[in-house]
Specification:
The protein has 133 residues and is mainly alpha-helical. The chain has helices spanning 3-13, 19-34, 40-53, 57-70, 74-78, 81-87, 93-106, 112-120. It has one domain (3-128).
Length: 133
């Protein structure tokens, strides 16, 4: 098994309910990516795949925190914009907000570009963070 396959397997089977593992995993993964041992894209893609599989906010908390620690760049977000937008109508509020915040914070386009999809998506689980009016 390659290192990439091992990381993909670990991300897919990580048990976010085990609080003792969370800090160790987060620290280890962020250090390994900063050293270049693990590809950032692999970690970002792993977080997005997990978000898209769904789950409760608690189930996704680990991946949301990892995603925040990775601080995806404009290029990383732009190349995955479709997946971020897919999260808006279906993901738990905290994950949908993370997706919108990531896109809005990374885009070089005007803010209304991201507001249009968010207004259309304000009827599902993410409605709590949608602007009123």
């Amino acid at each position: 098994m390659s290192a990439r396959e091992a990381v993909e397997e670990a991300l897919a089977t990580c048990d976010p309910a085990k609080a003792a593992e969370i800090g160790t995993w987060l620290m280890s993964l962020t250090v390994l990516q900063s050293e270049g041992t693990i590809d950032r894209g692999l970690l970002i893609d792993g977080c997005l795949r997990r978000f898209l599989r769904g789950g409760s906010a608690g189930d996704l908390r680990f991946f949301a925190r990892l995603h925040e620690l990775l601080e995806p760049t404009y290029a990383e977000v732009a190349s995955r914009a479709h997946d971020y937008l897919r999260l808006l109508p279906a993901a738990p509020g905290a994950v949908a907000e993370l997706a919108l915040r990531t896109c809005a914070g990374s885009t070089r386009s005007t803010p209304p570009t991201w507001r249009r999809p968010s207004k259309r998506c304000c009827s599902g689980p993410s409605a709590s963070w949608c602007p009123s009016g």
